[in-house]
């Protein structure tokens, strides 16, 4: 059964150990401490992971939302990163791959996802040219 909360601007609540505060406008939420959060627009289905960058994004996302199995996903991620690194000669792509690897190693998955989204855009442009 769904739970509906009616909250006032500035009001705080705790959700799964994360302190959440309603913004002053009453429409935004402020997370007061570390939390795993993924918006609908950031979720990728496995069937949509159909290019190298999208496969990397999907594995990062899974590692982020399933930390108990992160070691499994990270192993696959580094395999994908190494394959992509070996297959490209483009410096901007190599820099993006390194940034992604650094963010994942630092357990900054959300930052890695953002970097990978940029790589997906670049990859889409390159695929249009071929």
The SSE string, one letter per element, is EEEHHHH
Number of spatially distinct domains: 2
Radius of gyration computed on alpha carbons: 18 Å
- SS content category: mainly alpha
Note the beta-strand portion: 5-15%
Shape: elongated
Distance linking N and C termini: 50 Å
Question: What is the strand arrangement across the widest sheet?
Answer: 1-2-3
Main β-sheet description: 3 strands, antiparallel
Task: Compute the average pLDDT.
Answer: 93
Poorly predicted residue ranges? none
Total strands = 3
- Tally of helical runs: 4
Helix coverage percent of residues? 40-55%
List its salient traits.
4 helices; elongated; 3 strands; mainly alpha; 3-stranded antiparallel β-sheet
Please tell me about this protein's structure.
The protein is mainly alpha-helical and 130 residues long. It has 2 domains: 1-35, no CATH class; 40-129, no CATH class. It is 52% helix and 9% strand. The chain contains 4 helices and 3 strands, in the order E-E-E-H-H-H-H. The longest helix is centred in the C-terminal third of the chain and has 21 residues, at 109-129. The radius of gyration is 18 Å and the shape is elongated.
């Amino acid at each position: 059964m769904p739970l509906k909360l009616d909250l006032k601007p500035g009001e705080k609540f705790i959700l799964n150990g994360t302190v959440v505060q309603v913004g002053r406008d009453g429409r935004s939420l402020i997370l007061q401490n570390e939390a795993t959060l993924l918006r609908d627009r950031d979720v990728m289905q496995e069937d949509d992971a159909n290019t190298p960058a999208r496969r990397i994004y999907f594995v990062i996302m899974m590692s982020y939302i399933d930390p108990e199995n992160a070691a499994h996903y990270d192993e696959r991620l580094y395999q994908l990163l190494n394959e992509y690194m070996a297959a490209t000669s483009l410096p901007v792509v190599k820099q993006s791959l390194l940034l992604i690897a650094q963010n994942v190693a630092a357990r900054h998955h959300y930052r890695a996802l953002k970097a990978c989204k940029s790589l997906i855009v670049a990859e889409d442009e390159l695929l249009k040219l071929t």
